[in-house]
Protein backbone atom coordinates (compact mmCIF):
# COMPACT_ATOMS: atom_id res chain seq x y z
CA UNK A 1 0.00 0.00 0.00
CA UNK A 2 1.18 3.56 -0.70
CA UNK A 3 1.31 6.24 1.96
CA UNK A 4 2.06 9.85 1.14
CA UNK A 5 2.57 12.62 3.67
CA UNK A 6 2.93 16.00 2.02
CA UNK A 7 4.67 18.23 4.50
CA UNK A 8 6.26 21.63 3.98
CA UNK A 9 9.78 21.99 5.34
CA UNK A 10 8.69 25.18 7.11
CA UNK A 11 5.16 24.33 8.18
CA UNK A 12 4.51 20.77 9.06
CA UNK A 13 0.74 20.88 8.32
CA UNK A 14 -0.35 23.36 5.65
CA UNK A 15 -4.10 23.86 6.10
CA UNK A 16 -7.26 22.28 7.56
CA UNK A 17 -10.90 22.81 6.54
CA UNK A 18 -13.33 23.29 9.42
CA UNK A 19 -16.76 23.90 8.06
CA UNK A 20 -16.17 26.49 5.38
CA UNK A 21 -13.38 28.26 7.25
CA UNK A 22 -9.65 27.93 6.60
CA UNK A 23 -7.60 27.45 9.75
CA UNK A 24 -3.86 28.21 9.89
CA UNK A 25 -1.55 25.19 9.63
CA UNK A 26 -0.15 25.61 13.09
CA UNK A 27 -3.67 25.08 14.53
CA UNK A 28 -5.05 22.09 12.57
CA UNK A 29 -2.98 19.41 10.79
CA UNK A 30 -4.08 17.76 7.55
CA UNK A 31 -2.68 14.34 6.54
CA UNK A 32 -3.39 13.15 3.03
CA UNK A 33 -3.70 9.38 3.21
CA UNK A 34 -4.13 7.34 0.06
CA UNK A 35 -4.21 3.98 1.76
CA UNK A 36 -3.03 2.55 5.05
CA UNK A 37 -2.64 -1.17 5.69
CA UNK A 38 -1.32 -2.81 8.78
CA UNK A 39 -0.84 -6.59 8.28
CA UNK A 40 0.66 -9.44 10.26
CA UNK A 41 1.05 -11.57 7.07
CA UNK A 42 4.66 -12.54 6.04
CA UNK A 43 6.33 -10.87 3.10
CA UNK A 44 5.91 -12.54 -0.33
CA UNK A 45 8.57 -14.84 -1.70
CA UNK A 46 11.61 -12.90 -3.03
CA UNK A 47 11.81 -12.50 -6.79
CA UNK A 48 11.23 -10.05 -9.57
CA UNK A 49 8.14 -7.88 -9.62
CA UNK A 50 5.24 -9.26 -11.57
CA UNK A 51 5.40 -7.91 -15.14
CA UNK A 52 9.02 -6.54 -14.86
CA UNK A 53 11.68 -7.84 -17.38
CA UNK A 54 15.24 -8.61 -16.43
CA UNK A 55 17.44 -5.55 -16.91
CA UNK A 56 14.42 -3.29 -17.27
CA UNK A 57 14.44 0.16 -15.80
CA UNK A 58 13.89 0.03 -12.08
CA UNK A 59 15.45 -3.40 -11.68
CA UNK A 60 18.64 -4.13 -9.87
CA UNK A 61 21.90 -4.88 -11.66
CA UNK A 62 21.09 -8.56 -11.65
CA UNK A 63 17.43 -8.01 -12.61
CA UNK A 64 16.18 -8.69 -9.09
CA UNK A 65 13.67 -6.59 -7.07
CA UNK A 66 15.39 -3.27 -6.25
CA UNK A 67 14.09 -3.47 -2.73
CA UNK A 68 15.92 -6.66 -2.26
CA UNK A 69 14.72 -9.77 -0.49
CA UNK A 70 12.33 -9.48 2.45
CA UNK A 71 14.83 -9.92 5.17
CA UNK A 72 13.90 -9.73 8.85
CA UNK A 73 15.59 -6.34 9.12
CA UNK A 74 13.64 -5.03 6.15
CA UNK A 75 10.40 -6.22 7.71
CA UNK A 76 11.28 -4.34 10.90
CA UNK A 77 11.97 -1.19 8.90
CA UNK A 78 8.63 -1.50 7.11
CA UNK A 79 6.86 -1.93 10.43
CA UNK A 80 8.57 1.15 11.81
CA UNK A 81 7.52 3.16 8.74
CA UNK A 82 3.90 1.99 9.09
CA UNK A 83 3.93 2.72 12.82
CA UNK A 84 5.34 6.16 12.19
CA UNK A 85 2.64 6.96 9.65
CA UNK A 86 -0.01 5.70 12.05
CA UNK A 87 1.42 7.95 14.73
CA UNK A 88 1.24 10.87 12.33
CA UNK A 89 -2.39 10.06 11.54
CA UNK A 90 -3.32 9.74 15.20
CA UNK A 91 -1.47 12.92 16.04
CA UNK A 92 -3.30 14.70 13.26
CA UNK A 93 -6.67 13.41 14.48
CA UNK A 94 -5.78 14.31 18.05
CA UNK A 95 -4.80 17.80 17.00
CA UNK A 96 -8.05 18.20 15.11
CA UNK A 97 -10.06 16.97 18.10
CA UNK A 98 -8.20 19.34 20.39
CA UNK A 99 -9.04 22.15 18.00
CA UNK A 100 -12.68 21.11 17.65
CA UNK A 101 -13.24 20.96 21.40
CA UNK A 102 -11.21 23.96 22.43
CA UNK A 103 -13.48 26.04 24.66
CA UNK A 104 -16.58 24.61 26.37
CA UNK A 105 -18.72 24.82 23.24
CA UNK A 106 -17.31 22.75 20.32
CA UNK A 107 -16.14 24.73 17.32
CA UNK A 108 -18.59 24.92 14.44
CA UNK A 109 -21.59 25.16 16.79
CA UNK A 110 -24.29 27.75 16.05
CA UNK A 111 -27.70 28.61 17.49
CA UNK A 112 -30.16 30.69 15.43
CA UNK A 113 -27.22 31.62 13.20
CA UNK A 114 -25.08 32.81 16.13
CA UNK A 115 -21.58 31.21 16.16
CA UNK A 116 -20.92 29.93 19.68
CA UNK A 117 -18.06 27.58 18.76
CA UNK A 118 -14.85 27.70 20.77
CA UNK A 119 -16.40 29.88 23.47
CA UNK A 120 -16.73 29.30 27.18
CA UNK A 121 -20.25 28.91 28.49
CA UNK A 122 -20.19 32.42 29.89
CA UNK A 123 -19.01 33.86 26.55
CA UNK A 124 -21.58 31.83 24.63
CA UNK A 125 -24.34 33.00 27.01
CA UNK A 126 -23.37 36.65 26.51
CA UNK A 127 -23.19 36.24 22.72
CA UNK A 128 -26.58 34.54 22.44
CA UNK A 129 -28.26 36.96 24.83
CA UNK A 130 -26.88 39.94 22.90
CA UNK A 131 -28.26 38.55 19.64
CA UNK A 132 -31.68 37.92 21.21
CA UNK A 133 -31.70 41.48 22.52
CA UNK A 134 -31.04 42.69 18.99
CA UNK A 135 -34.02 40.63 17.79
CA UNK A 136 -36.27 41.66 20.70
CA UNK A 137 -38.81 43.46 18.53
CA UNK A 138 -39.34 40.31 16.46
CA UNK A 139 -39.31 37.89 19.38
CA UNK A 140 -41.74 40.03 21.40
CA UNK A 141 -44.25 40.27 18.55
CA UNK A 142 -47.62 38.55 19.09
CA UNK A 143 -47.85 34.95 17.90
CA UNK A 144 -50.81 33.90 15.77
CA UNK A 145 -52.52 30.76 17.05
CA UNK A 146 -55.40 28.68 15.70
CA UNK A 147 -57.79 26.77 17.94
CA UNK A 148 -60.38 25.01 15.84
CA UNK A 149 -62.15 27.80 13.92
CA UNK A 150 -60.84 30.54 16.21
CA UNK A 151 -57.70 32.62 15.68
CA UNK A 152 -55.98 34.86 18.17
CA UNK A 153 -52.79 36.73 18.96
CA UNK A 154 -50.78 35.64 22.00
CA UNK A 155 -48.18 37.99 23.44
CA UNK A 156 -45.02 36.08 24.43
CA UNK A 157 -44.61 38.16 27.60
CA UNK A 158 -48.10 37.17 28.76
CA UNK A 159 -47.29 33.45 28.71
CA UNK A 160 -43.56 33.43 29.54
CA UNK A 161 -42.59 32.44 25.98
CA UNK A 162 -38.85 32.98 25.45
CA UNK A 163 -35.56 31.36 24.51
CA UNK A 164 -34.00 29.76 27.59
CA UNK A 165 -30.47 31.06 27.07
CA UNK A 166 -28.76 29.06 29.83
CA UNK A 167 -30.40 25.78 28.82
CA UNK A 168 -29.60 26.41 25.15
CA UNK A 169 -25.90 27.04 25.89
CA UNK A 170 -25.81 23.90 28.04
CA UNK A 171 -27.25 21.90 25.14
CA UNK A 172 -24.71 23.47 22.77
CA UNK A 173 -21.82 22.40 25.02
CA UNK A 174 -23.07 18.81 25.19
CA UNK A 175 -20.96 17.15 22.46
CA UNK A 176 -22.48 13.72 23.06
CA UNK A 177 -26.01 14.95 22.52
CA UNK A 178 -24.94 16.95 19.45
CA UNK A 179 -21.87 15.24 17.90
CA UNK A 180 -19.63 17.23 15.56
CA UNK A 181 -17.30 15.81 12.85
CA UNK A 182 -13.68 16.18 13.89
CA UNK A 183 -12.40 16.99 10.42
CA UNK A 184 -15.15 18.96 8.67
CA UNK A 185 -17.72 19.52 11.43
CA UNK A 186 -20.40 22.14 11.84
CA UNK A 187 -23.72 21.81 13.59
CA UNK A 188 -26.79 23.91 14.32
CA UNK A 189 -28.35 23.40 17.75
CA UNK A 190 -32.05 24.14 18.21
CA UNK A 191 -32.76 26.71 20.93
CA UNK A 192 -34.48 25.54 24.10
CA UNK A 193 -37.87 27.29 24.29
CA UNK A 194 -39.63 27.89 27.60
CA UNK A 195 -43.30 28.74 28.18
CA UNK A 196 -45.56 28.83 31.23
CA UNK A 197 -48.13 26.15 30.42
CA UNK A 198 -50.69 27.35 32.99
CA UNK A 199 -50.54 30.99 31.89
CA UNK A 200 -50.75 29.90 28.26
CA UNK A 201 -53.79 27.74 29.03
CA UNK A 202 -55.48 30.71 30.70
CA UNK A 203 -54.84 32.98 27.70
CA UNK A 204 -55.96 30.36 25.18
CA UNK A 205 -59.23 29.74 27.01
CA UNK A 206 -60.05 33.45 26.76
CA UNK A 207 -60.21 33.21 22.98
CA UNK A 208 -61.12 29.58 22.39
CA UNK A 209 -64.78 30.00 23.31
CA UNK A 210 -66.86 26.96 24.08
CA UNK A 211 -65.99 23.57 22.67
CA UNK A 212 -68.61 21.19 21.37
CA UNK A 213 -69.32 19.05 23.20
CA UNK A 214 -68.13 20.92 26.28
CA UNK A 215 -66.89 18.92 29.25
CA UNK A 216 -69.34 18.91 32.15
CA UNK A 217 -67.38 19.72 35.30
CA UNK A 218 -68.68 17.74 38.29
CA UNK A 219 -69.88 19.54 41.40
CA UNK A 220 -72.13 19.16 44.41
CA UNK A 221 -74.43 22.01 45.35
CA UNK A 222 -76.92 22.33 48.19
CA UNK A 223 -80.64 22.95 48.14
CA UNK A 224 -80.93 24.16 51.70
CA UNK A 225 -78.93 21.41 53.41
CA UNK A 226 -79.66 18.68 50.80
CA UNK A 227 -76.74 17.88 48.46
CA UNK A 228 -77.46 17.92 44.71
CA UNK A 229 -74.81 16.21 42.55
CA UNK A 230 -73.92 17.21 39.00
CA UNK A 231 -72.18 14.32 37.27
CA UNK A 232 -69.18 14.70 34.93
CA UNK A 233 -69.30 14.19 31.17
CA UNK A 234 -66.34 14.08 28.75
CA UNK A 235 -65.96 16.68 26.04
CA UNK A 236 -63.51 18.56 23.84
CA UNK A 237 -60.99 21.01 25.21
CA UNK A 238 -57.38 22.01 25.63
CA UNK A 239 -54.53 20.13 27.28
CA UNK A 240 -52.00 22.58 28.83
CA UNK A 241 -49.02 20.29 28.16
CA UNK A 242 -49.88 19.69 24.51
CA UNK A 243 -50.70 23.37 23.96
CA UNK A 244 -47.32 24.40 25.37
CA UNK A 245 -45.49 21.83 23.25
CA UNK A 246 -47.22 23.04 20.08
CA UNK A 247 -46.30 26.66 20.82
CA UNK A 248 -42.68 25.78 21.58
CA UNK A 249 -42.36 23.82 18.34
CA UNK A 250 -43.97 26.43 16.08
CA UNK A 251 -43.04 29.76 17.63
CA UNK A 252 -39.93 30.58 15.60
CA UNK A 253 -41.32 29.26 12.30
CA UNK A 254 -43.05 32.54 11.57
CA UNK A 255 -46.25 30.66 10.73
CA UNK A 256 -49.53 30.49 12.71
CA UNK A 257 -49.36 27.83 15.41
CA UNK A 258 -52.16 25.26 15.54
CA UNK A 259 -53.15 24.42 19.11
CA UNK A 260 -54.63 20.91 19.28
CA UNK A 261 -58.19 20.40 20.49
CA UNK A 262 -58.23 17.11 22.37
CA UNK A 263 -60.67 14.79 24.08
CA UNK A 264 -60.96 15.81 27.73
CA UNK A 265 -61.98 13.38 30.45
CA UNK A 266 -63.03 14.87 33.81
CA UNK A 267 -60.58 14.00 36.57
CA UNK A 268 -63.43 13.05 38.94
CA UNK A 269 -65.71 10.16 37.98
CA UNK A 270 -69.43 9.80 38.63
CA UNK A 271 -68.67 7.10 41.20
CA UNK A 272 -66.35 9.48 43.05
CA UNK A 273 -69.08 12.14 43.06
CA UNK A 274 -71.48 9.64 44.67
CA UNK A 275 -68.80 8.76 47.21
CA UNK A 276 -68.33 12.43 48.10
CA UNK A 277 -72.08 12.84 48.56
CA UNK A 278 -72.29 9.84 50.87
CA UNK A 279 -69.10 10.39 52.86
CA UNK A 280 -68.88 14.20 53.04
CA UNK A 281 -71.82 16.24 51.72
CA UNK A 282 -74.61 14.43 53.58
CA UNK A 283 -72.95 14.15 57.01
CA UNK A 284 -71.53 17.70 56.68
CA UNK A 285 -74.91 19.40 57.06
CA UNK A 286 -76.67 16.79 59.21
CA UNK A 287 -75.72 18.33 62.57
CA UNK A 288 -74.26 21.65 63.80
CA UNK A 289 -70.61 21.94 64.81
CA UNK A 290 -69.73 23.41 68.21
CA UNK A 291 -66.74 25.77 68.40
CA UNK A 292 -65.05 26.41 71.75
CA UNK A 293 -62.93 29.56 72.25
CA UNK A 294 -61.41 31.27 75.27
CA UNK A 295 -64.26 33.81 75.02
CA UNK A 296 -67.05 31.24 74.97
CA UNK A 297 -68.76 28.84 72.59
CA UNK A 298 -70.79 29.24 69.42
CA UNK A 299 -72.29 26.83 66.89
CA UNK A 300 -72.05 26.54 63.12
CA UNK A 301 -75.45 25.37 61.84
CA UNK A 302 -75.92 23.06 58.86
CA UNK A 303 -77.23 25.93 56.74
CA UNK A 304 -73.98 27.87 57.25
CA UNK A 305 -71.95 24.76 56.38
CA UNK A 306 -73.96 24.29 53.18
CA UNK A 307 -73.30 27.92 52.17
CA UNK A 308 -69.54 27.70 52.74
CA UNK A 309 -68.66 24.10 51.75
CA UNK A 310 -67.27 24.18 48.20
CA UNK A 311 -67.47 20.92 46.22
CA UNK A 312 -66.89 22.13 42.65
CA UNK A 313 -64.45 20.68 40.15
CA UNK A 314 -61.60 22.76 38.76
CA UNK A 315 -61.02 23.14 35.02
CA UNK A 316 -59.72 19.55 34.87
CA UNK A 317 -62.82 18.27 36.64
CA UNK A 318 -61.04 17.46 39.90
CA UNK A 319 -63.04 18.21 43.07
CA UNK A 320 -60.95 19.54 45.95
CA UNK A 321 -63.28 19.94 48.96
CA UNK A 322 -62.74 23.16 50.90
CA UNK A 323 -64.56 25.56 53.19
CA UNK A 324 -64.68 29.11 51.82
CA UNK A 325 -63.44 31.35 54.64
CA UNK A 326 -65.25 34.48 53.45
CA UNK A 327 -68.57 32.70 52.94
CA UNK A 328 -68.24 31.00 56.33
CA UNK A 329 -67.69 34.33 58.11
CA UNK A 330 -70.74 35.84 56.39
CA UNK A 331 -72.87 32.80 57.25
CA UNK A 332 -71.99 32.83 60.98
CA UNK A 333 -71.74 36.59 61.42
CA UNK A 334 -74.34 36.66 64.20
CA UNK A 335 -72.72 33.74 66.04
CA UNK A 336 -69.34 35.47 65.92
CA UNK A 337 -70.78 38.58 67.56
CA UNK A 338 -70.89 36.68 70.87
CA UNK A 339 -67.11 36.16 70.99
CA UNK A 340 -65.62 38.92 68.81
CA UNK A 341 -64.84 42.61 69.25
CA UNK A 342 -64.39 44.56 66.03
CA UNK A 343 -61.37 46.87 65.72
CA UNK A 344 -62.15 50.56 65.42
CA UNK A 345 -60.18 52.69 62.99
CA UNK A 346 -58.97 56.10 64.05
CA UNK A 347 -60.86 58.84 62.25
CA UNK A 348 -62.18 62.37 62.52
CA UNK A 349 -65.59 63.63 63.54
CA UNK A 350 -66.98 67.00 62.61
CA UNK A 351 -68.24 69.05 65.56
CA UNK A 352 -69.20 72.68 65.18
CA UNK A 353 -67.62 72.85 61.74
CA UNK A 354 -64.27 71.60 63.04
CA UNK A 355 -62.45 68.27 62.83
CA UNK A 356 -61.93 66.31 66.04
CA UNK A 357 -59.68 63.20 66.01
CA UNK A 358 -61.23 59.98 67.31
CA UNK A 359 -58.75 57.39 68.57
CA UNK A 360 -58.70 53.90 67.10
CA UNK A 361 -58.79 50.66 69.09
CA UNK A 362 -57.76 47.06 68.47
CA UNK A 363 -60.19 44.16 68.35
CA UNK A 364 -60.37 40.39 68.75
CA UNK A 365 -61.58 38.08 66.02
CA UNK A 366 -61.90 34.36 65.42
CA UNK A 367 -59.19 33.04 63.11
CA UNK A 368 -61.59 31.95 60.36
CA UNK A 369 -58.75 30.64 58.17
CA UNK A 370 -57.86 28.05 60.82
CA UNK A 371 -61.55 27.54 61.60
CA UNK A 372 -62.29 26.68 57.95
CA UNK A 373 -59.49 24.12 57.87
CA UNK A 374 -60.46 22.48 61.16
CA UNK A 375 -64.16 22.50 60.25
CA UNK A 376 -63.54 20.57 57.04
CA UNK A 377 -61.76 17.83 59.01
CA UNK A 378 -64.81 17.04 61.20
CA UNK A 379 -67.56 17.35 58.58
CA UNK A 380 -67.46 13.65 57.52
CA UNK A 381 -68.08 12.63 61.15
CA UNK A 382 -71.60 12.22 62.50
CA UNK A 383 -70.53 12.10 66.15
CA UNK A 384 -67.48 14.19 67.04
CA UNK A 385 -68.72 17.58 65.90
CA UNK A 386 -66.60 19.81 68.12
CA UNK A 387 -63.55 21.92 67.32
CA UNK A 388 -61.50 24.58 69.07
CA UNK A 389 -61.48 28.13 67.76
CA UNK A 390 -58.58 30.56 68.06
CA UNK A 391 -59.17 34.20 68.98
CA UNK A 392 -56.52 36.55 67.59
CA UNK A 393 -55.86 40.24 68.13
CA UNK A 394 -56.66 42.54 65.20
CA UNK A 395 -55.14 45.99 64.87
CA UNK A 396 -57.12 48.87 63.33
CA UNK A 397 -56.31 49.71 59.72
CA UNK A 398 -55.73 53.33 60.68
CA UNK A 399 -54.09 54.27 63.98
CA UNK A 400 -54.41 57.57 65.82
CA UNK A 401 -50.75 58.36 65.09
CA UNK A 402 -51.38 58.16 61.32
CA UNK A 403 -54.09 60.82 61.21
CA UNK A 404 -51.95 64.01 60.95
CA UNK A 405 -49.98 62.64 57.98
CA UNK A 406 -53.18 62.18 55.96
CA UNK A 407 -53.53 65.92 55.43
CA UNK A 408 -57.25 66.25 56.15
CA UNK A 409 -57.81 69.96 56.73
CA UNK A 410 -61.08 71.32 55.29
CA UNK A 411 -64.48 70.64 53.81
CA UNK A 412 -64.04 69.95 50.10
CA UNK A 413 -67.65 69.35 49.03
CA UNK A 414 -71.17 68.87 50.37
CA UNK A 415 -74.46 67.66 48.90
CA UNK A 416 -78.02 67.45 50.26
CA UNK A 417 -81.18 65.66 49.07
CA UNK A 418 -84.67 65.93 50.57
CA UNK A 419 -87.37 63.38 51.45
CA UNK A 420 -90.90 63.41 52.86
CA UNK A 421 -92.63 61.48 55.61
CA UNK A 422 -90.44 62.54 58.54
CA UNK A 423 -88.51 60.09 60.71
CA UNK A 424 -91.61 57.95 61.30
CA UNK A 425 -91.41 56.69 57.71
CA UNK A 426 -89.61 53.32 57.25
CA UNK A 427 -87.89 54.79 54.20
CA UNK A 428 -86.54 57.71 56.26
CA UNK A 429 -85.33 55.31 58.93
CA UNK A 430 -83.40 53.32 56.32
CA UNK A 431 -81.73 56.52 55.14
CA UNK A 432 -80.75 57.39 58.70
CA UNK A 433 -79.43 53.85 59.32
CA UNK A 434 -77.09 53.76 56.31
CA UNK A 435 -75.93 57.35 56.96
CA UNK A 436 -75.03 56.35 60.51
CA UNK A 437 -72.96 53.38 59.28
CA UNK A 438 -70.99 55.50 56.79
CA UNK A 439 -70.45 58.53 59.05
CA UNK A 440 -66.75 58.98 59.86
CA UNK A 441 -65.50 56.53 57.21
CA UNK A 442 -61.89 57.37 56.38
CA UNK A 443 -60.43 56.61 52.95
CA UNK A 444 -56.66 56.71 52.46
CA UNK A 445 -55.00 58.07 49.29
CA UNK A 446 -55.32 55.57 46.46
CA UNK A 447 -57.96 53.45 48.21
CA UNK A 448 -61.32 52.51 46.66
CA UNK A 449 -64.41 52.86 48.83
CA UNK A 450 -67.25 50.38 48.26
CA UNK A 451 -70.60 51.19 49.86
CA UNK A 452 -71.69 47.54 49.86
CA UNK A 453 -68.31 46.53 51.21
CA UNK A 454 -68.52 49.10 54.01
CA UNK A 455 -72.05 48.33 55.21
CA UNK A 456 -72.31 44.65 54.30
CA UNK A 457 -75.81 43.17 53.89
CA UNK A 458 -78.62 45.59 54.65
CA UNK A 459 -81.48 43.54 56.09
CA UNK A 460 -83.73 43.37 59.14
CA UNK A 461 -80.92 42.23 61.45
CA UNK A 462 -78.97 45.41 60.69
CA UNK A 463 -81.96 47.64 61.50
CA UNK A 464 -83.40 48.15 57.99
CA UNK A 465 -87.11 48.06 57.25
CA UNK A 466 -89.43 47.45 54.30
CA UNK A 467 -89.93 50.44 52.00
CA UNK A 468 -90.58 50.86 48.26
CA UNK A 469 -87.88 49.61 45.90
CA UNK A 470 -87.83 49.25 42.09
CA UNK A 471 -88.11 45.59 41.08
CA UNK A 472 -88.88 44.40 37.54
CA UNK A 473 -89.80 47.93 36.48
CA UNK A 474 -92.24 48.77 39.25
CA UNK A 475 -92.24 49.89 42.87
CA UNK A 476 -92.74 47.09 45.40
CA UNK A 477 -92.03 46.83 49.15
CA UNK A 478 -88.49 45.65 49.89
CA UNK A 479 -86.07 45.70 52.82
CA UNK A 480 -83.75 48.72 52.69
CA UNK A 481 -85.85 50.93 50.43
CA UNK A 482 -84.51 54.49 50.57
CA UNK A 483 -80.81 53.58 50.71
CA UNK A 484 -80.59 54.64 47.04
CA UNK A 485 -81.30 58.22 48.11
CA UNK A 486 -78.32 58.12 50.43
CA UNK A 487 -76.25 56.54 47.63
CA UNK A 488 -77.15 59.40 45.28
CA UNK A 489 -76.24 61.94 47.97
CA UNK A 490 -72.87 60.27 48.59
CA UNK A 491 -72.24 59.97 44.86
CA UNK A 492 -72.76 63.70 44.34
CA UNK A 493 -70.57 64.62 47.31
CA UNK A 494 -67.67 62.60 45.83
CA UNK A 495 -68.52 63.85 42.31
CA UNK A 496 -68.20 67.52 43.34
CA UNK A 497 -65.05 66.73 45.34
CA UNK A 498 -63.52 65.67 42.00
CA UNK A 499 -62.95 62.09 43.11
CA UNK A 500 -62.69 59.23 40.62
CA UNK A 501 -65.95 57.44 39.78
CA UNK A 502 -65.33 53.67 39.79
CA UNK A 503 -68.82 52.18 39.76
CA UNK A 504 -72.34 53.55 39.84
CA UNK A 505 -75.63 53.00 38.05
CA UNK A 506 -78.46 55.56 37.77
CA UNK A 507 -82.06 54.52 38.38
CA UNK A 508 -84.15 53.10 35.54
CA UNK A 509 -86.70 55.90 36.18
CA UNK A 510 -85.89 59.53 36.98
CA UNK A 511 -87.18 60.97 40.25
CA UNK A 512 -87.37 64.72 40.67
CA UNK A 513 -85.64 64.62 44.07
CA UNK A 514 -82.40 63.59 42.26
CA UNK A 515 -80.32 65.53 39.69
CA UNK A 516 -80.69 63.82 36.28
CA UNK A 517 -77.87 61.56 35.06
CA UNK A 518 -75.58 62.18 38.07
CA UNK A 519 -77.36 59.93 40.56
CA UNK A 520 -77.05 56.30 41.63
CA UNK A 521 -79.07 53.35 42.86
CA UNK A 522 -77.81 50.42 44.94
CA UNK A 523 -78.96 46.86 45.61
CA UNK A 524 -76.95 44.44 47.71
CA UNK A 525 -74.94 42.55 46.53
CA UNK A 526 -75.45 43.07 42.79
CA UNK A 527 -75.41 46.87 42.41
CA UNK A 528 -72.73 48.83 44.24
CA UNK A 529 -71.37 52.36 44.41
CA UNK A 530 -67.59 52.77 44.43
CA UNK A 531 -65.23 55.71 44.21
CA UNK A 532 -61.45 56.00 44.45
CA UNK A 533 -59.57 58.59 46.44
CA UNK A 534 -57.29 59.70 43.60
CA UNK A 535 -55.73 62.53 45.62
CA UNK A 536 -52.54 62.61 47.71
CA UNK A 537 -54.61 63.30 50.85
CA UNK A 538 -56.86 61.20 53.03
CA UNK A 539 -60.57 61.98 53.27
CA UNK A 540 -63.38 61.60 55.78
CA UNK A 541 -67.06 61.13 54.95
CA UNK A 542 -69.30 63.19 57.24
CA UNK A 543 -73.07 62.51 57.24
CA UNK A 544 -76.02 64.17 58.90
CA UNK A 545 -79.79 63.53 58.75
CA UNK A 546 -82.78 65.77 59.62
CA UNK A 547 -86.50 65.00 59.50
CA UNK A 548 -86.58 65.91 55.81
CA UNK A 549 -83.03 65.76 54.41
CA UNK A 550 -79.74 63.88 54.31
CA UNK A 551 -76.39 65.61 53.78
CA UNK A 552 -72.98 64.13 52.94
CA UNK A 553 -69.78 66.18 53.14
CA UNK A 554 -66.24 65.24 52.09
CA UNK A 555 -63.41 66.57 54.27
CA UNK A 556 -59.88 66.50 52.87
CA UNK A 557 -57.62 69.11 51.21
CA UNK A 558 -58.82 70.89 48.08
CA UNK A 559 -57.28 70.01 44.73
CA UNK A 560 -59.64 71.93 42.42
CA UNK A 561 -60.87 75.50 42.55
CA UNK A 562 -64.32 74.25 41.53
CA UNK A 563 -66.18 71.28 40.07
CA UNK A 564 -69.44 72.08 38.27
CA UNK A 565 -71.97 70.42 35.94
CA UNK A 566 -73.46 71.35 32.59
CA UNK A 567 -76.45 69.41 31.22
CA UNK A 568 -77.59 68.95 27.65
CA UNK A 569 -81.27 69.35 26.70
CA UNK A 570 -83.36 66.22 27.14
CA UNK A 571 -83.97 64.18 23.99
CA UNK A 572 -85.79 61.03 22.86
CA UNK A 573 -88.65 61.78 25.26
CA UNK A 574 -91.18 58.98 25.80
CA UNK A 575 -94.53 59.10 27.62
CA UNK A 576 -95.65 56.71 30.39
CA UNK A 577 -98.14 53.91 29.78
CA UNK A 578 -101.22 53.30 31.89
CA UNK A 579 -101.11 49.93 33.67
CA UNK A 580 -103.70 48.50 36.05
CA UNK A 581 -102.46 46.22 38.86
CA UNK A 582 -104.23 43.90 41.26
CA UNK A 583 -104.99 45.79 44.47
CA UNK A 584 -103.15 44.60 47.58
CA UNK A 585 -100.24 45.31 49.96
CA UNK A 586 -97.65 44.92 47.20
CA UNK A 587 -99.34 47.36 44.81
CA UNK A 588 -97.91 50.89 44.86
CA UNK A 589 -99.67 53.47 42.67
CA UNK A 590 -97.61 55.99 40.68
CA UNK A 591 -98.36 59.02 38.55
CA UNK A 592 -95.96 58.07 35.77
CA UNK A 593 -92.76 59.84 34.67
CA UNK A 594 -91.49 60.73 31.18
CA UNK A 595 -88.53 58.84 29.82
CA UNK A 596 -85.60 60.67 28.18
CA UNK A 597 -81.90 60.68 27.34
CA UNK A 598 -79.56 63.35 28.69
CA UNK A 599 -75.86 64.19 29.01
CA UNK A 600 -74.03 65.76 31.93
CA UNK A 601 -70.47 67.13 31.85
CA UNK A 602 -68.36 67.34 35.00
CA UNK A 603 -66.11 70.37 34.59
CA UNK A 604 -62.88 70.82 36.60
CA UNK A 605 -61.35 74.27 37.05
CA UNK A 606 -58.02 75.29 38.55
CA UNK A 607 -56.26 78.67 38.62
CA UNK A 608 -59.29 80.19 36.91
CA UNK A 609 -59.10 77.87 33.89
CA UNK A 610 -61.04 74.80 32.78
CA UNK A 611 -58.63 71.86 33.15
CA UNK A 612 -60.79 68.98 31.95
CA UNK A 613 -64.37 67.75 31.60
CA UNK A 614 -65.96 64.30 31.87
CA UNK A 615 -69.13 63.24 30.08
CA UNK A 616 -71.90 61.16 31.70
CA UNK A 617 -74.91 59.95 29.65
CA UNK A 618 -78.00 58.02 30.73
CA UNK A 619 -81.26 56.84 29.18
CA UNK A 620 -84.27 56.84 31.54
CA UNK A 621 -87.26 54.65 30.83
CA UNK A 622 -90.74 56.12 31.14
CA UNK A 623 -92.16 54.98 34.46
CA UNK A 624 -95.69 53.67 33.81
CA UNK A 625 -98.66 55.17 35.55
CA UNK A 626 -99.65 52.29 37.82
CA UNK A 627 -103.25 52.11 39.03
CA UNK A 628 -104.18 49.64 41.79
CA UNK A 629 -107.48 48.35 40.42
CA UNK A 630 -109.09 46.78 37.37
CA UNK A 631 -109.61 48.59 34.09
CA UNK A 632 -112.96 50.45 33.95
CA UNK A 633 -115.64 48.92 31.74
From TrEMBL:
The keyword Cell membrane does not apply. The keyword Membrane applies. InterPro entries: Glycopeptide_resist_protein, Vancomycin_resist_VanW, YoaR-like_PG-bd. The chain crosses the membrane at residues 79-101. Keywords: Membrane, Transmembrane, Transmembrane helix. Residues 277-387 form the YoaR-like putative peptidoglycan binding domain. Residues 37-75, 218-241 are annotated as: Disordered. Residues 62-72 have a biased composition (Low complexity). PANTHER family: EXPORTED PROTEIN (PTHR35788:SF1), EXPORTED PROTEIN-RELATED (PTHR35788). This is VanW family protein. It comes from Micromonospora sonneratiae.
